[in-house]
Structures are given as structure tokens and as C-alpha cells.
Amino acid sequence: MSLLQMENISKTYSGNQVLKSVTLNIKAGEIHGLLGENGAGKSTLMNILFGMPVIHSTGGFEGNMTFDGKPYLPKTPMDAMKMGIGMVHQEFMLIPGFTITENIKLNRENTKDTFLSKIIGPKLEKLDLPKMKEESKEALNKLNMTVDEYLPVAGLPVGYMQFIEIAREIDKTNLKLLILDEPTAVLTESEAAQFLEVIKNLSNMGIAILFITHRLDEIKQVTDSITVLRDGSLVKSIETKNVDIVEMARLMVGREISFETSNKKEIDLDEKPFLELKDLYVNMPGEKVKGVNLKIQKGEILGLGGLAGQGKIGISNGIMGLYPTQGTILKDGKEMPLNNPREMLNNSIAFLSEDRKGVGLLLDEPIDFNIAYTSIEIQEKFIKNIGPLKIVNGKEIKSHANKMIEDLDIRCTGSNQYTRFLSGGNQQKVCIARALTLNPEILLVSEPTRGIDIGAKKLVLDTLVKLNKELNMTIIITSSELAELRQISDRIAIITEGKVQSILPPDASDEAFGLAMAGKDISEVVD
Amino acid sequence: MMVPIVFLVLCLGGFFLSGLPVNFLFNEMVFRLSRNLILVLSLIIPVISGMGLNFGIVLGAMAGQIGLIIIMNYNIGGIGGLFLALLLSTPVAIFFGYLVGKVLNKAKGKEMITSMILGFFANGIYQLVFIVLAGRIIPFSNPNMLMSTGTGLRNTIDLNIVRKSFDGFIFSGITSYPIFTFIITILLFVGLYFFLKTKLGQEMRAVGQSMHIASVSGIDVDRTRIISIIISTVLAAWGQIIYLQNMGTLNTYNNHEQVGLFAVASLLIGGASVDKASWKEAFIGTFLFHLLFIISPLAGQNLMGNAQIGEYFRVFIAYGVIGVALLLHAWEKNKAITQLSDI
Question: Which of A81, A398, A407, B40 has the fewest C-beta atoms under 10 angstroms from its C-beta?
Fold first, then answer.
């Protein structure tokens, strides 16, 4: 009998359907793997299951859930916890300054009556520390952890923190289902092995586990069955023993892609690279780059792909010097200064940030000034000298902006409209116009189609291809959408755990991409 | 630990320069500690709940003064009057604390500057009430409190009927030291110690460390923060009443103004920071800050031939120590963000 049944779950975020009639069944005590790319709908499904407020503040969802034989409709995480569902989040939910005991017992502390608590209420009950310690110890023992429960969490190895999170969940006496969201992403290999052992033990204790990860070999190793999601739809639910890793990768990535291979240029890798990254480290929170080596040829479009959090976004940000960076960047054989955005602009490298509203645009300035300001600052374009004074030439800016609006088809009420009031696609075009005004040799583009509707997406991508063809501009495009990288890039580098996993041609097989994103080379799996 | 040591050295140096007799110093310190400890204590809980240094205790001080103004108006003196003032000020302080808490919940991450500006803003309303409305719309039965025009409270109100009534309660026959005040202060410090070991205290510590994790664990973050500010404001109201009964006069429009600044400086000199404070820091800091207060004018006089120098020096210290503490805090936060080595 199923412990959890989710039937025909659909969810729409402001007109955008992210889950289409997904069904998920989990049996009591089994380990169930949930697979999918970024944006496949895994997180949304988990948010629904765990009753996260974001679901209900955006209009709820459609479909039925049954848990443990009863209809189940959680409004808050507390409802989910009461039913016996626990979740270990991707980022740690541990308070660094608290001891292990305090963290395991957070908001579920054992307490004793006091004189005041009888008058004022249970909030003034005294903490029963010995009892708390004893029970924490018990939970840790179940995980074969021998760590002193009175140590503060800060300073412990990350592997331990993961176990403490799980200890907190199994300390909840009624735990029936434990959701683990990318639990092994932060663990070393030996820690991960120990971790998988623990999961098996828990499953033997009768606790069902829903295991979300992109490490396919782990899925293969521990799960009893898997469910694969792609683009918000259910691809397949299958028992693990009937499927191999290559097949999993294909299910995860596979889709019909219509791209014209005739567009692609042959890249001569023997030529001297135009831009070269040697051992690049970037400390961008959540997207750390840990030693990337890449050679980019003049006139190519290089795609940077990979799953979120693996570091692909950090590369362009690091090249521009927006986050602390180490390593060597050579352009045309010349070493570039690091951590200096201005020098990079001076060296004819322009950047379209993934943070369009934060970094890309001055939201409370009109379109024409947004297009011109970097050029004014860096190249002293649009400036006339009157004696010792430098005056911005408004007329010239306006006529230039109008030309750009026409060329790029920016839909607006005029060049004096504030960029805040433009749609996402048109805002992106303003960013492109600004980069074009600089007339750069290298254009770094980060997530150019995020939050943009399909029609505008095509326009933005076409514009990039056109620039590449007509001006022979070298473009490095970072995107979470593999399909769009395959559509326009000449080569695609997949970034995993802060490093280049492999460089693939856009017409490589789905399996190859899927495995690369999971941190594997196709050759080693097939052997 | 550096800050208190530096100030201890300063105090020792100042002590020798000033040439003040130990006897005199001891007496002064006893009274100053009894006057100020509760006000400094009131800052600890907001620090633990992660709301920084609550400059909003100015509103608590106002609540305390409102309590005193009411009993002065009805001429209820003695220890009974004083307890009545404490009682009356409490609901007012709870109300003020609730409002401050509500506002600070809207300004998460900017609690300190917000609470400071709230103090200035509240001062404006306080003046409106007691300069313009008092006597005109708010009736006062005690004409001695009003200015000669019949509107507005006098600048100074003599608190003779409650003067030292709290300090001397029970023990006045035995000694002139404020024994009762010390007993109450110690009880409050002990109470704080136990409070932090309760469920609510644990929740405040959790909220102070991470609002996000606390809320995911089911703790009502906003409510916890409001309770924290209410406790702080009520303690400040009581602290201000106890301060004023010792002084014996109420400077209607000035007494509350510097309360936040001096209490914050005291706590910081004791070695506390924006996110860490305990009773030890409150006690050590209050002691050092006021010791410096007593000796610095005389030390300035003896060193430079000008008492004003010492006076400047202590004002400089009060503001300087707050500025340095805030800077250090910002630096540490920045350091945590931009280190490349921890990849």
C-alpha cells in the first residue's frame, strides 16, 4: 500500500504552468528517487508536499494527496510535520551558535513547569537540558554518530551538519516520510558513502525516504524506485532495478530540439585562444567557481551549462570582477587585471548580468540614459567639451537610443520611458543595447532569457546570433536552459562542482549532457 | 575583552591624575550603579533577540516619567506613590514597546537606526503633549507643576515627595546606602538569567541567531521580537523611575533624551557587541563608564588646567565607543562575506 499518493498535481505561477498533472506514489519504508533538471518542477512538487506558504500565497494547486490513508492538504510546514513528514533542506537549517542538542530540539524543547509558567503560560517553562541531551544522543546513535551533543554547530564539518539535520528529523517521534533535497551535494565521497548507509538503515526502520539528487550513481545505488520529471510533466515512474544510469540521463534531459546545425561554425581549437581562463576561482555565494580552465576562440559562441549552484554563473561574474576572484585571465595573450570591472570594460569586454534588475538596469532612469551610461563613463561617448567642462550630449543619446529601439524592436512608449515599467524581454533588450553601444569584442551573457516569454526569448537569442555573425563578436552565454544553449552555441562547456566537467558539441546526445551535468563522462559510464 | 581592559587602564590613570579620595569615589559609584544598572539591563534582551542596541528605551524612559508626572499631579508621595508610579508606567511602557516592536519588525536589519529615530520622533510627541496640551486639554490639578501661563509643564519638577523613597525602603533606619534598590536590581539580573533558560528565552536566542531558521522551525518570529522589545521598554520605564527618585528632580524635557546613548555606551564599554551581551557586560560596563564620568573632569583639570577638557573627553568617549563598536561589527560582517580562501 502506498504511504503517499499525489495524484494529478498541477500548479501555475502567474500564468506559467510549472507542474502538469504529476503523479507520485511512495510506498511505506521505500527509498524513492526524484530526478529532474533545474526547472523540471521538483522543488514546486516538494513545496506542495511540505505545505510551504509560497504555494498558498500564489493560489494553491490542483490535484489530490493522500498520506497514510487519509486525505492530506497541508497549509503550513507545521501541518506536514504533524502528519509525520520531515524535510532536510538543501541549505542547512541549523543555528551556528547553538549546540547540537539545541539544534536537534529547536522549538521542540523538553521543558519543566516553573512557578511563573503556571501563571503566565507554557512559554515560561524551564528547559529540561538533561532530558534534551539524552534524547539527542539517542537520535545521533541511531545514525551511528559519535559526536558530543553539547558542541556548538559552528565549526563542525559540513558532513556532520547533514547528519544533525537528519537526527533532528528522526527525533520527531512520528516520522514516516523524510524528504532529502540534494543531501550529498556538500559531502565528500567518504561522507556520502556513510550517508547512503544511514539512509538504508532508516529505510529498514520503516521510514520512507524521498531522495532528490542529481548524482545518478547514488540514485542507482540506494533507491528502490524512481520518478523522473521534465518540464513540469511526469516522464516515468519505474523500479530502479529496471533502468540503468544512461537511460536515466536520457529520461532527464531528452526532448525534441529543433536546431539548425547548418548555423554552427567549425571552431579551430589549434588557433591561439582569444580569451583564456587559467585556474579561475570565484567566490560568488551559491555559485562558487573552483579552478576553471577554458580556452575561447575568436568569433565563437561558447555556452556554459550545468545545474544551478554548480558555478556556471560565477564564471562570467568572476571575469568581470564582480566577486572576489583568483587565477589568470588572458585576453589575446595579455594578462587582465582581476577584480576590476572598469579595466575589463576598458579592454572591450561587456557583461549582461543575470540579475537584470539589480545590476543590469537603472530602473528609475529612462531607456536612453540606460543605453548610454556605461559608454559615457568608460569611453566618453556622447560627451561634448565646453571649455573645461564635460557636458553630456542629450540629443546624441536620444537619437542613438531611438536607433537602438528600432533595431532591437524594444516595445516602449518612447526613449524617455523608465525601464522599471518595461516587460522582462524589453528590459533585456535595453541591456543588450547598452552592451552594443560599448561595441565590445567579447560579450558575456548570463541567463539572457530568464523570466522572459517565448516570443521575446527567440528575439533575444536571434539578436545574439546576429551580432556574432555580423560583427564577429565573441559571445560566452551562460544559461540554465540547455535547449537554448544547444540552439545557438558552437561549443557547450558543462560546469559541475565549480569545474569544467566536459566540453560538448551542441548536437551531442542527451545522455552525454545528462551525465555531464551529473558529474560523469559518458565514456566512463558506458565502459 | 580588549575594550573593558582599555577603559580600566584609562580609569586607573584618571584616578591617579584626579587625586580623588577612594572614599568619595566609592560613595559616588554606589549611587551611580544603583541609578543606572536597570537601564543598562534593559538593553540585553533585544541584543539577544538579534535586534541590536535598542535606542528605543528612550520611550521606556518617557513611560516612566509619565508615571511620575501622574503621581506628582495627585501628590501621592512616599514608597506607596513610587510603587503606584511603577504600576502606572507599566501599561504605558507595554503599549510603547508594542508600537516600537511593530515598527522594528518592518525595518528588519535596520533596527538600531530606526529605534534611535523613533526616540527622536517620540520626543516630539512628548513635548507636544507636555508643553502644548498639558493644562489646556489635559487637566492638571497641581498648579505647581504648570508654568505660570497655565499651559505646559515646568522645566524641572521637584520630586521631593518620592525622593529616595525606593532607595531607603525598609533599610533607611540602618544605612543611607540604596540597599533596597540593589536588592531589586539583583533580583532583576537573576530573573533575566533564568528567563534566558526558559522556552521563550530559547526562542529569543534562536530568533537572534537566524530569523529564517527560527520561522521554519515554527517559531513566531515577529511576535517574539515584539515581546523582546516590550520587556526592554518596561524595564527601561522602571529603571528611569528608580533613576529619578534617586536624583530627586525631574528635568521634564531632558532627562529621557540621553538615556539611550549612555546606557548603550555603558553596555559597549563592558565588552558587549551588537549581537552579544550578558549581565556581566552590563555590570562591568556601567561600573567603568560611570567611574570615568566621575574622574575625567578632575583629571582634565589637573592635567590640562581645564575641567572642560575632561568633560569633552567623556562626551567624546560616549559617542566614540558607540561608533567604534558599530564599525567593528560592520567590519566583521564584511570580512565574513568577501573571503576568497574559503572556497
Answer: A407
